[in-house]
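Many introductory courses stop at the sequence. We go one step further.
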Amino acid sequence: MKRITALTAGMVVAAVAAASGATATAAGTLPTLALTMTGKSITATSSVPAGAVNVVSTVSGEAVGSPTLVRLDPGVTFEQAFGAAIKAGGDPNALDGLASIVANPEAFKGVSTVQTVLTAGNYVALDTIANNPNKWPHVAFTVTDNTAPASLAKPQATVASEEFRFTGPSTLHNGELVRFENDGYLYHMIIALPAKTKAGAKALDAALLAGDQRKANKLVSGPPLQLMGTVGRGGMHQQVLKAKPGFYVLACFMNTQDGRVHTQLGMERVIRIVK
């Protein structure tokens, strides 16, 4: 995966044809950040209070959108932050000290909802599904100070990324509220690659660790699930899981400075999704 694509996992999102599901718990009790994406434009609620929010994405004109929420550091413009990432070949770690990607779920055509937590500040929402970053539509919005911020519902499971591993249960259940988060210092993603069998998943895991992409491609049995797009430290969202039962291999396809993919450093793990 190219580094510029790894900025938000847009290429992976475009390949997904099987929904991972995104319906928030207690949706009516939280403030709403409403996003609309057409593939060529994006709009957002002008402001929301700090704390837990529902991110409600309405997508038309494209099969799937990639809503990407970026918090700008004080005094930093979007152009400065975006330019730094592009200058670094698309490496989002170049945003350090300028901005942070705090959430990057996927949003299929129609209406979908996830939950996240936003701190006060200036933000930009982008739809990063296109391969050309210069064509990513974006819009500014504000998260205002809030003396009584809402809290997220407690998830039934949490899957997290770190340097260089995944943590969380090895079995996830459809219909449970799952939180996906980055507990590491670097930028990470959580992509679930389906395998036909448990043995196939173990072989896929080994191929990714060995850097044998050709063998890995042959062992992937269907479209990947983007459980979490590329986010910085503390970035997260939670959703009700809806995925085809079976064995999967979690993977992070970010690149290190020496060109290795994070899967080669241990960011691959076999999990099972059951009914």
